[in-house]
Amino acid sequence: MSHAAATFTKRITTTYLGALAVLAALAVVGYHLPQAELKYQQTSAAVLNLIDRQDILLERTALLAEHFLKTSDDGQRARLREELEREAREMEEAQTRLHRADPRLAVPAELDRQVHEHIANVRRLLELPSSERTAGHPLSKAIFAQATGRLSDDLESLALAYQRLDAAGIQQLRRTAAGLLAVQLGTLALLGWCVFRPLVRRIQQEHDERLRSERLAVIGTMAAKFAHEIRNPLGSIRLNLDSLRENLAGNHAPALLGSIDSELRRIQRVSSGYLKFARLPKGTYATIALNEWLAQQLQICAAEFAHRRIRLDTQFVPTLPAVRADGAQLWQAMLNIIHNAWEAMPDGGALTIRTAFVRPHVRLEIADTGHGMNEEQSQRLFQPFFSSKKGGTGLGLALTQQIILEHGGRITCASRPGAGTTFCIELPCSKETPVEQPTTSRRPNASDCPGETS
Amino acid sequence: MNNPQSILVVDDDAEMLKALTFALEKEGYAVTGQPSADSALSSLRGDTPRFDLVITDIAMPGMTGLPFLTALKKAFPAMPVILITAYGDWEQYRNALGEGAFEFLCKPIDKTQLLACVRRALGGEPPAPSATPPWDAF
Fold first, then answer.
1. How far, CA to CA in Å, does A378 sit from each of A93, A131, A198, A329, A411?
2. At B111, phi and psi to the nearest 5?
3. Nearest chain B Cα to A224, which residue?
4. Looking at the complex, does the CB of residue A243 fall below 8 Å from at least one CB of chain B?
5. Shortest Cα distance from B28 to chain A (angstroms)?
6. Which helix or strand (DSSP H or E) is residue A368 part of?
7. Separation CA A288–CA A220 (nearest Å)
8. How many domains does chain A have?
9. C-alpha angle with apex B7: B1 to B10, nearest 5 degrees?
10. Does B87 contact A at CB distance below 8 Å?
11. Shared-domain flag, residues A259 and A379
């Protein structure tokens, strides 16, 4: 997997996992909200039941107290006493439970006092000696007053206030749930934006790349067939021509044969170009110390540079990490650029080759002082079969780009008419230890690659 | 008069076969032409090599040049074999040299280049030193 693809996958995975974590957290909160609402409703029902029960007990004790004083039957009185005692106890417990039922419920102290006074009145009534047990006893009147008067009203007010509080609480819970849902939907939308959009773009890019590869494969097959069809007759023509030349002695014969020979060489060059572009073999990669390797390769061309009156200037950064490359292919890629530079400087000039380390790439710049190119030429530079040179195949720089791409790198070019051309090649560093190399010249300026054409 | 050195030339392209035969015979070699690797192998049956050198095309119908080279090297390890191809392909180049080809020539072949190569092969000289495959740059 290429470095760019790995970075892309890492970025997508991180975003995706981050969004999933947010969604999971929200889902947990979302799951607990209905449960919280249910619990809330159960508490509310319990509180209202308790208040209601207190009200009922209040009325019942008043009624039972009245019967207790009126009846003269000992058996009935004993049953009423028992019942009154039980209900007084129940009122006491209910009041205690009311305090604990819901922290939001504030039971007024006055109501508390009245309830306990009512219970105390009931218990005092039960303790009365039989001589004082008459229907109109003041304790009976007090109990009756509590049951029908202020205490009853206060209990009702407490219930109403609690109901209002309860409704507001439920509303708050539902608002929280709605907000949570909105955040979840927002996160999902963000997930879509952050993950699926680049994913779709990537798929589109891959689709385009596949189309390009398929097109190139078709061109490759055609070119291979074309080269084969041409080279076979070329082979016999060439040999026959050579044999014929040895047997001809006329004045013009050598010139004519020379012309045929030159044309044959031209066809040979074109067919070689097509074939090389069409059948770029899989690279044999090795770790290359670029500075050292470049110095060796350029040494071979030194005579050619001198012959063309072109000054070769190398500016290699002293410490440069190694690259993984197929030396022969990389040299072929560079040679195509150097050939173009030579042709762009027919009257001599200078060719500068710089190396630099721009993490995580090793950068190689090849700059000439030739006639340069216009914008259209620059833009179509790497396009297969495009050539601004007479007799050019238009495959040299296309092959160069193909080789650099196969190496996981990229190539760009900047050029202006009359101001020369600079090619910038970036290759991924080898994972091995950086290679220390002696410098031959000053440290290059690690400026950005020219990016007009790539 | 000494017996001329014998060369077996294998190529499915009749014109190419004719041109190669003509060029080599002009130099005094005894040339036998075969249109396929299969027919060439049939003509080579036996323990004694009948030829001093084999020149063969690679892309041919039936058995192609590389398996033919392998078969030849198995039967007659000392016999030099020059491969000719219309495809200048790195992989083929490496495979051919790996299998023991004497040299790998790319069509169209220069007569001087061909004869020099044949002379080297027949004279027991080492192949021409070449850092790069025999096809030219753009």
1. 94, 125, 29, 23, 13
2. -60, -40
3. B87
4. yes
5. 14
6. strand A361-368
7. 29
8. 3
9. 155
10. yes
11. no
Nearest to B89 among A238, A264, A279 (CB): A279
**Structure ipTM:** 0.76
CATH code: domain of residue A64: 1.20.120
Q: Do A224 and B87 touch (CB under 8 A)?
A: yes
CA nearest to A428, candidates A448, A407, A449, A412? A407
Residue A256 is assigned to a structural domain of this protein: yes
B128 interfaces chain A, CB cutoff of 8 Å: no
Name the token pair of B56: 């063969």
Sign of the four-CA dihedral A366, A369, A374, A377: negative
Candidate from A235, A281, A332 with C-beta closest to B109: A235
| Residue A400 belongs to domain spanning | 286-436
Question: Mind listing the pLDDT tens digit of every residue in chain A (454 residues)?
Answer: 455 566 667 777 777 777 778 778 877 877 777 777 788 888 888 888 888 888 898 888 888 888 888 887 888 888 989 999 999 999 999 889 888 888 878 888 888 888 888 888 888 888 887 777 776 778 887 887 777 788 888 888 888 888 888 788 888 878 888 888 888 788 788 877 877 777 888 888 888 778 777 777 777 777 777 777 788 888 888 888 888 877 776 677 777 777 777 778 777 777 777 777 776 777 788 899 999 999 988 887 788 888 899 999 999 998 899 999 988 889 889 989 999 999 999 999 999 999 999 888 999 999 999 999 998 888 888 887 777 776 667 788 988 998 998 888 999 999 999 999 999 999 998 875 555 444 444 333 444 454 444 4
Looking at the DSSP assignment, which residues form a beta bridge with residue A319? A436
Domains and CATH numbers, chain B: 6-122 (3.40.50.2300)
In a domain, A448, yes or no: no
